[in-house]
């Protein structure tokens, strides 16, 4: 039986616990990390201020999130006066590399080429992005989407044409 490797480097686990994957961070944890990475090191107040324009949260909420990140080993903290100052255990680039490696391994059988093909198929592009494609690319993407739609069950009886029954 193969032992799973921890994607977070051992040197970064000084803060306590471990995390199997950076992908397992809760949305607010990731937002706090996205605020902390460019700062390099920050207090709860600085992280709260950085989040305020797009995601205002109470000081105590951010304090709890940062404490949890420290327990998981994602950040390390040091006492500075009466407050803690937090520093990421791994860089944003390392976190991205670990997350992409996890996705490639888990969804694409370890093939980065399969991930690249998936992304080049335009699956993440909004529908209006088809207008900027060449006609050949638009046909290829539309055909790929058609194959996905064919594999799904038809809408429930009484559903207006063109509407997905799950949205009703």
Task: Describe this structure in a few short sentences.
The protein contains six helices and three strands; from the N terminus they run αβααββααα. With 168 residues, it is mainly α.
Task: Give an overview of the whole structure.
With 168 residues, the protein is mainly α. Among the domains are: 14-89, Winged helix-like DNA-binding domain superfamily/Winged helix DNA-binding domain (Arc Repressor Mutant, subunit A), CATH 1.10.10.10; 121-151, no CATH class. Helix content is 46%, strand content 8%. It has helices at residues 27-39, 44-51, 59-72, 92-107, 112-120, 135-151; strands at 42-43, 75-80, 83-88. The protein has a three-stranded antiparallel sheet with strand order 1-3-2. Helix 1 (27-39) crosses helix 2 and helix 2 packs across helix 3. The longest helix has 17 residues, at 135-151. It starts with 26 loop residues before the first helix and ends in a 17-residue tail after the last helix.
Radius of gyration: 21 Å
Overall form: elongated
Strand order of the largest sheet: 1-3-2
Reported for the largest beta sheet, the result is: 3 strands, antiparallel
Structural class comes to mainly alpha
Q: What is the N-to-C order of secondary-structure elements (H for helix, E for strand)?
A: HEHHEEHHH
pLDDT below 50 for ≥5 consecutive residues: which ranges? 1-16, 147-156, 158-168
Number of helices: 6
The residue fraction in helices comes out at 40-55%
Q: Kindly, what is the distance between the CA atoms of the first and last residues, rounded to a whole number of angstroms? A: 46 Å
